[in-house]
């Protein structure tokens, strides 16, 4: 599945949140959207999965405008992970993961054996099989995040839109979840705060600042010293991880800076 965004702008109460956004994601690409807090990353993702409607511009999935899809049709194409997507209602873990099967079932049908198998398999992938019957609200933040990732996996779609998938996760699960994503043969568009995760796992990065695309390209092109300085006001030391051959970012806090 491929995604194309053309001249997208989004305003709230006459305030521009996103300004003339243009980019394309090809089938199989892992694309990260990065940028400072409040720059518009989540707003862009919400426009793509149709929670918000662009003020101007168009979004195409496989050359079809996104507003041509019903919410169920869209859920059959895109698996999503939003921030705080677990909600406040308490469900068992397996029920939450089964919600990922929503697009594949009718409201009149009960859970099929196949749905249950897929949901259990997704829970196993994120290492939470033993939590099947536990209540969602009783889990830690990181465990809840893994359940929500299992729900996205249970959708069995080939396009994932994720808002900070490694949020709340300890380093083992940050790497494991991203490794799982890599193993799934999917296209991914994800907001990411951790620059080393972005550099390690993404083919392409989009750097957003105050609703504008400042840079778009490979991690090595986008995660330059200049962009860290200009957009985040942070000094970095860049090197190459000899094991992954990927860019490695080391931050130089002001209290350690000799310049
Ligand atoms: N309903 C709203 N009313 C007014 N402003 C809003 C609304 N929703 C979002 N914004 C503003 O839009 C801007 C972009 O928000 P968004 O959540 O997209 O940022 P973000 O890049 O995802 O931030 P973060 O990294 O902190 O998650 C912010 O300044 C936010 O305050």
UniProtKB/TrEMBL annotation:
Chain segments annotated as coiled-coil in the UniProt record: none
Residues in ABC transporter domain copies: 3-235
CDD domains xrefs: ABC_Iron-Siderophores_B12_Hemin
Alphabetical UniProt keywords: ATP-binding, Nucleotide-binding
Gene Ontology MF term list: ATP binding
Pfam families: ABC_tran
Gene3D superfamilies associated with the record: P-loop containing nucleotide triphosphate hydrolases
Entry protein name: ATP-binding cassette domain-containing protein
